[in-house]
Amino acid sequence: MNRLFKSLLVLSASLATTLSSIAADAPIMATPDHPNGVYREGEPIHWQVKTNAPAGTGADAAAPLSYVVKKGGLTPIAKGTIPLDHGMGTLTATLPEAGTMLVEIKGGAIKGFAGAVVAPEKLKAGVACPDDFDAFWNGKLAELDKIPANPALTPAASDKEGVQYEKVTLDNINGTHVQGQIARPTAGGRFPAILQLQYAGVYPLQKSWVTEKAAKGWLALNILAHDLPIDEPADFYQKQNAGPLKNYTMIGNESRETSYFLHMLLGDHRAAEYLASRPDWDGKTLVVIGTSQGGIQSFFTAAYFPKVSAVMVEVPAGCDPGANAAGRAFGWPYWGATKSPKVMETSRYYDACHFAARTKCALLVGVGLIDTTSPAGAVYAAFNSAQGPKEIVPMPLADHKTHHQEFAARREQWLKALLHGQPAPIAEAK
């Protein structure tokens, strides 16, 4: 390792004690000594590492683990081994500047990650916002305004007593449609509203995603990201995913005018407009929630629809596609992997960081510190851009799909407060 790397990062390996906080079924888990995984510049970071290797993987409780440290989840800056005692060891690192760390840990055929973030409040988007960003999006919204929503509601059986359920279709740009489902309590007149936007993929909607919220008192709308019927058999969506919607994130991505995300995002705006136009909305509370792909959709909706009162996004995707310019890893939808100047120029108009910078409502964000789909540095860049009251929940053990319990708990606390007309219960940063 050269002197520059030594100056950036100091690593050591030593024995550790029992890790009661680590899930017993994980092959390799690493827990930082700060419960939230957040550190100051130059502050030592200590991870306690535990293996629970399945038989036949080539890793055991005595064999050392190997590791590679990647600054920003992108640049390898150190590597070594972690001696184990009864399957446990310690890894220590120090980063003298703002950024993120992602440590890849291997033992035989098993693999795990360690993560941390240093001075996260200093992280910014890798690429500047285009000068005509607002002009472009306001122009597209003006085009949408010329198209009547023409809401078509189809009543259907509800799976919960006291809840009214309907399918809904709205007209969108270029002859496309917004297709979704809506539910509300049968008793009462006006309700707080919630719009749920979907994670990536091609699949049907589950009725419970709106009826369970309606049973609690919400006017709940949930839409597909695609112009497809919402409740066809599984093979219908499999054929769409293998056919016309295969790699849909790359469709039209060489131009801001043709990107597949254009009608998706405008459809989100239309759905929020529709909710706010209904006589059974209370006129005050309109919450937008989304996970992964639902994150970029939620940021866009809040950016250009001022009636949105709160946004809650879990491991939001689409943040900072130009992260490489800041020395960090980019995430889904992986525009940067194309290495195409045209695609990267398009991505500047679809960067969730730039949408977040136009939000002023209350914001709750969950970020996984070992998430490689929505890298932590990109998520923090979007969070830091937001202009309104905000709270972020760093989850040191969370990848894109697991160990999100802390965020889920905070989201429920927020939803309970907002449902009853209370302000968002924003916690101070720790």
TrEMBL record:
Example of a GO MF term: carboxylic ester hydrolase activity
Keyword Signal among UniProt keywords: yes
Keywords: Signal
Residues covered by the Acetyl xylan esterase domain: 128-320, 339-417
One biological process term in Gene Ontology: polysaccharide metabolic process
Listed Pfam families: AXE1
Protein name: Acetyl xylan esterase
Protein source organism: Chthoniobacter flavus Ellin428
Binding site for substrate: Y203
Active site residues per record: S292 (nucleophile), D371 (charge relay system), H400 (charge relay system)
Signal peptide: 1-23
PANTHER family: CEPHALOSPORIN-C DEACETYLASE (PTHR40111:SF1)
